[in-house]
Amino acid sequence: MSKQSIFLVGATGETGTTILNALLEDGSFEITCLIRTSSAGKPSVQALKDRGLKVVTGDLTGPIEDIVALLEGIDIVIAALFPGSLNDQIPLLKAAAQVGVERFLPCNWGTPAARGGILTLTDTKGEVHDYMMRLKVPYTIVDVGYWYGMSVPRVPSGKFDYAIFVPANNIIAGGTAKNMLMDQTDVGRFTVKAIKDSRTLNKRVYAYGDLLSQNEINEIIERKTGENLELNFLSAEDVSKEKEEAIKGMEAHPREISKMYSVVNWQYADTKYVRADNTPENAEYLGYINGRDLYPDFKWIRFEEFIDDMIAGKGRKIYPHLQLSI
Ligand SMILES: NC(=O)c1ccc[n+]([C@@H]2O[C@H](COP(=O)([O-])OP(=O)(O)OC[C@H]3O[C@@H](n4cnc5c(N)ncnc54)[C@H](OP(=O)(O)O)[C@@H]3O)[C@@H](O)[C@H]2O)c1
User: Fold this and answer.
1) What percent of the chain has pLDDT over 90?
2) Within 10 Å of residue 58's Cβ, how many Cβ atoms?
3) Does residue 124 lie within any of the structural domains?
4) Cα(169) to centroid(ligand 1), Å
5) Is 49 annotated in the active site?
6) Are 193 and 52 in a shared domain?
7) Looking at the 3D structure of the chain, how many domains does it have?
8) Which residues of 297-322 are buried (b: 16+ CB within 10 A; e: fewer)?
9) Cβ(139)–Cβ(103) under 8 Å?
10) In this structure, are residues 318 and 147 in contact, taking their beta carbons and an 8 Å threshold?
11) Does one domain contain both 236 and 270?
C-alpha cells in the first residue's frame, strides 16, 4: 500500500514536534513540513533537514496558487500553528478545498469548551471550523485536555525549575475540579491514531491520559518529592478580576506576547477550574467522540510517570525560547 502523504504546518512547534515524532514512529506516511520563508534559516529547520525530512518553504498569507501548488498530491493537512496565527489557516483551507485533500486537521489540541467568550482561542478556532465546514473540507478536530507539562507547581527545593514553563501554584476554587490531562508525547501518538481511523472523519475526538484535580496533582507531587508545596489559594472572583486585568493589559499592549499569554492563562484558569469545562462529560455534551473508547489498548503515559521523569531530571522545558512574566 502506498504511504499517505502528510503536509505538516508547524513541525518545529511544541504540538507539531510531537505529531512529527509520532508520524515518524508510525512509519506509514510521506511527510512534507511547511516552514514559513522567514523561518527557513532557523536551527530548528536545519534539524528537520538533518533528520532527512522533506522541508518546503512558503507563506500561507501569500498567493493562493502557491499554496495550491504545495498541496498537490497531499492526502492529509495538519495545521499545528502558533495560536496567534490561527487565521492563516483560512488560505490553507481554501487551497485544501481546491486540491480536494482527504482530511484536514485544524489547529486545536486543546480543552473542550463552548464558544462565546470563555476562551478567545476557542472562539477563533471555532471561526476557522465554520469556514472549513462551509467549504465542506473533510476534517478531524482533535482535543487532548491540558498538557502535563503545563500542570506542574514549583516545589520549594527548586527541583522542577529546570522544566517548568509557568508554575501551577495557584489553586483555584478549592482545587477540586477534575481536568483531562495528557503527556505531550501522547498528543502526537493519539493524533496519528485519529488520522488513520475512518471513524474520526468529520468528527471531533477527545482523549486524556489522566483525569486529575489540582488537589490530586499536588498530593502526587508531595508524596513523590517529600516536599510541602507553597500554594496560593484563589477564589472564582479572584480569577474573574485577574482575567479583566489581563484583558486590559492586552488591549493596552496588543503586540506584547506576554500580555496575550496572560489572558490565555486566566481564561484557562476559569474554564478548567471554575467552570470545570475540561471534562469527559463536557466533551461528550459538545458532541465529541471518545478516543479512549476508540483505542482501548493505547498505553497512555500517566501523570505519575511524568512526575517520576521530572524528578529524575528527564523533564523538558516547553517553549524554551519564551521568557514570560504572567
Ligand atoms: N492542550 C494544551 O495544554 C496546549 C498547550 C499549548 C498549546 N496548545 C495548542 O496547540 C496548538 C499549537 O500550539 P503550539 O503552542 O504547539 O504552537 P507553537 O509551539 O507556538 O508552534 C507554532 C509552529 O507554527 C509555526 N508557525 C507559526 N506561525 C506560522 C505561520 N503563519 N505559517 C506557518 N507556520 C507558522 C512555527 O514556526 P516558526 O515560528 O519557526 O515559523 C512553529 O513551528 C494550538 O492550537 C494551541 O492552542 C495546547
Assistant:
1) 93
2) 17
3) yes
4) 25
5) no
6) yes
7) 2
8) eeebbbbeebbeebeeeebeeeeeee
9) yes
10) yes
11) yes
Q: Does 166 sit in the ligand 1 pocket, CB within 6 Å?
A: no
The answer as to whether 290 is a domain residue is no
Closest among 222, 220, 242, 244 to 305, alpha carbons compared: 220
Asked if pLDDT for residue 130 goes beyond 60, the answer is: yes
- Residue from 82, 108, 143, 261 to probe ligand 1 pocket by mutation (most atoms less than 8 Å from CB): 82
15 lines ligand 1 (CB under 6 A): yes
Residue 121 sits in a domain of what CATH number? 3.40.50.720
Distances, alpha carbon 215 to alpha carbons 169, 192, 208, in Å: 11, 32, 18
**Burial of 118 per CB tally in 10 Å (0-12, 13-18, 19+):** middle
Instruction: Clarify whether residues 165 and 240 are in a common domain.
Output: yes
What is the domain range of residue 152?
A: 147-182+210-279+300-311
Q: Are residues 78 and 214 in the same domain?
A: no
Q: For every residue of 176-214, which 3-state class applies, written as one string?
A: CCCEEEECHHHHHHHHHHHHCCHHHCCEEEECCCEEECH
292 and 223 Cβ atoms separated by less than 8 Å: no
Q: For ligand 1, say whether the CB of 18 is within 6 Å of any of its atoms.
A: no
Which sign, positive or negative, has the C-alpha torsion 15, 106, 275, 265? positive
Q: Are residues 253 and 199 in the same domain?
A: no
The domain that holds 156 is classified in CATH as 3.90.25.10
Say what the pLDDT of residue 326 is: 45
Label residue 258 by pLDDT band (50, 70, 90): confident
CA 173 to chain CA centroid, Å, is 24
Give 74-127 pLDDT, tens digit per residue: 999 999 999 989 999 999 999 999 999 999 999 999 999 999 999 999 999 999
Give Cα separations from 16 to 110, 179, 183 (angstroms): 13, 23, 14
Q: What is the pLDDT of residues 22-62, one digit of tens each?
A: 999 999 999 999 999 999 999 999 999 999 999 999 999 99
